[in-house]
User: Which sequence fits this backbone?
C-alpha cells in the first residue's frame, strides 16, 4: 500500500528513519515507537504511515492496523492498567500534527505499600 508522508513532519521523518526512534512494531500501514517524553515507563505512540493531521482525515485502510498494534503493545508489555489516548487539534492538546495513538502504562502505585 502506498504511504503518503510529508517532508517536514516529525512523525513522517521517524517513519522514514530520518529521525531516530525506539521502534516497537511495524506493519505495512503502521509504525509504533517509544514516546520521547514518556508520561510513564513504556509510553508508546502508534502512528499510521500516512500523513493526516486529524483522525477524520485518515483513510480507513491506514486506521485499520493502529488499534490492533496498540493492543499488541499492551499485551507484549503485559500491561494491566493503561490508557489509550488520541488527541485532535491544539485545544485538545495535540502537539504533533500527525495522527497518533498514545499507549500509556499506569504504574501500580500500590506496589510496595503495606
Ligand atoms: P500529542 O500531545 O500531540 O498528543 O502528543 C505528541 C507526543 O509526541 C508527545 O507525548 C511527545 O513527547 C511526543 N514526541 C514529540 N516529538 C517526538 C520525537 O521526536 N520523538 C518521539 N519518540 N516522540 C516525540
Ligand atoms: Zn506526518
Assistant:
Amino acid at each position: 500500500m502506498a504511504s503518503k508522508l510529508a517532508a517536514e513532519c516529525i512523525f513522517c521523518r521517524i517513519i522514514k528513519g530520518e529521525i531516530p526512534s525506539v521502534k516497537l512494531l511495524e506493519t505495512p500501514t503502521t509504525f509504533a515507537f517509544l514516546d520521547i517524553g514518556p508520561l510513564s515507563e513504556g509510553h508508546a505512540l502508534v502512528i499510521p504511515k500516512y500523513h493526516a493531521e486529524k483522525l477524520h482525515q485518515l483513510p480507513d485502510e491506514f486506521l485499520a492496523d493502529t488499534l490492533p498494534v496498540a493492543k499488541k503493545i499492551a499485551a507484549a508489555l503485559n500491561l494491566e492498567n493503561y490508557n489509550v489516548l488520541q488527541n485532535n487539534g491544539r485545544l485538545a492538546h495535540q502537539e504533533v500534527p500527525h495522527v497518533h495513538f498514545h499507549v500509556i502504562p499506569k504504574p501500580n502505585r500500590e506496589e510496595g505499600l503495606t
In short: The CA atoms of residues 38 and 44 lie 8 Å apart. The longest helix spans residues 66-76. Residues 10-105 form a domain with the HIT family, subunit A fold (CATH 3.30.428.10). The chain is about 20% helix and 20% strand.
